[in-house]
Amino acid sequence: MQNTMLRKVKYGKIAIVIFLTVLIWVWTDLALDEEFPVSNARIIVAKSSPNLWVSFNDKSSILIDNIELKGPASKIAEVKRKLKTGSLQLEFFLDAEQEGMVKPDEYPLDVLNLLRKSDQIREIGLAVQSCAPDKLTVNVVELVEKPLDIECFDESGALLEVKSIEPSKVVMYVPADSRLTAQVPLTPRDIKQARLSVVEKTPFVVFAEGQTRHALDPVQIKMPPEADSLSDYTIEQAKLVIAMSVNLLGDYDVDVTNYNDVVTFTILATSEAKEAYENQTSQVTLNILDDDKDKGPNEEQRREVVYNFPEEFVRKDEIKLTNPRKQAKFKLIPLTSTKAPMTRVD
Question: Which of 131, 186, 206, 253 is the most exposed place for a label (fewest CB within 10 A)?
């Protein structure tokens, strides 16, 4: 009986010692608070009412250069580890309506207060001591519903000609004084499908860089049939233009010694593209540079010419050169004050 009581007393003492030890460890950890600076945190505008556009001077997010966190050493170490491994990103969300920013205006934002009441800060078990910047301006713009024209673009950003879009307009919330159009980017695969049947896409508007709003419903887009098949054409006696620096004008003439070769070449094009190319004021350009004059007057120089294919047909891949680019052979001929400029006669 006595031995049993002694064992109980010993166990009780051990439990008390363990409890006190743990308590001391916890108290020591809490007492030894550390401060830890964090950079590259970001405040992001949360999704707001459809009739409001909330931004930081047209930006959907803004960088916080420095946040000073404080807390137990163990929590600081855990946050450091998660930041290094990328498992933690400090992102804070601004809910404009929760902050009372519900009417068009400019509002001051207390950044420190926003961070301190953040759920993310509470979850990591630390406190925010300071931040920079500590004040920001929030812009709230009222949006109105307007029917918008729809424009389609290819991957390079070039405007595409479409056969039909159903519906032809889309109603979206935009700033009242804006002239925005709804945009639809199309991939080559989309374009191919739209030529055969239709492609369904959801238009969007761009308020500013990184600030977009999508329509609620998609539209159906049809493209015109495939352009004429490409054919080989020989271009003879193309119009050659000499593009000379103003620093050389009046002082030098250009003698293209292989003129006939340069102005004769073959292209692969649609008939429409070929006609447009031939109707241009120039088809080929030879650029003459300032330092070309540094070579002797009778020294032959070489440079690739530029083929001035119509940009709209180049974008649609409806015109291209089939032979290698021609190199013009030329000489710069100094002009005397009494000698008239030479002209090309062939």
Answer: 206
Calculate what percentage of the chain has a pLDDT beyond 90: 60
Three-state DSSP at 108 gives strand
- Domain extent, residue 87, equals 29-140
Strand partners, 221: 165, 199
Cβ neighbours of residue 72 under 8 Å, at least 6 residues apart? Answer: 29, 30, 32, 33, 34, 125
Same domain, 131 and 161: no
Q: What is the mean pLDDT of residues 284-296?
A: 90
Same domain (yes/no): 136, 150: no
Write out pLDDT tens, residues 95-152. Answer: 999 999 999 999 999 999 999 999 999 999 899 999 999 999 999 999 999 999 999 9
- The total of structural domains in the chain comes to 3
Q: Which residues contact 245 (CB under 8 A, 6 or more apart)?
A: 288, 289, 290
DSSP-derived letter for residue 96 is T
Q: 206-220, pLDDT tens digit by residue?
A: 998 878 999 999 999
**pLDDT at residue 342 greater than cutoff 90:** no
Of 254, 249, 231, 220, which is closest to residue 330 (Cα–Cα)?
Answer: 254
Q: Which of 163, 188, 222 is at the close of a domain?
A: 222
Instruction: With H, G, I as helix, E, B as strand and everything else as coil, classify residue 58.
Output: coil
- The backbone torsions φ and ψ at residue 201, rounded to the nearest 5 degrees and listed phi first, read -140, 155
pTM of the complete model: 0.56
Tokens encoding 214 = 């999508």
Rg (CA), the chain: 36
Rounded Cα distance, 166 and 320, in Å:
34
Would residue 5 count as lying in a domain? no
Q: How far is CA 111 from the centre of its chain?
A: 28
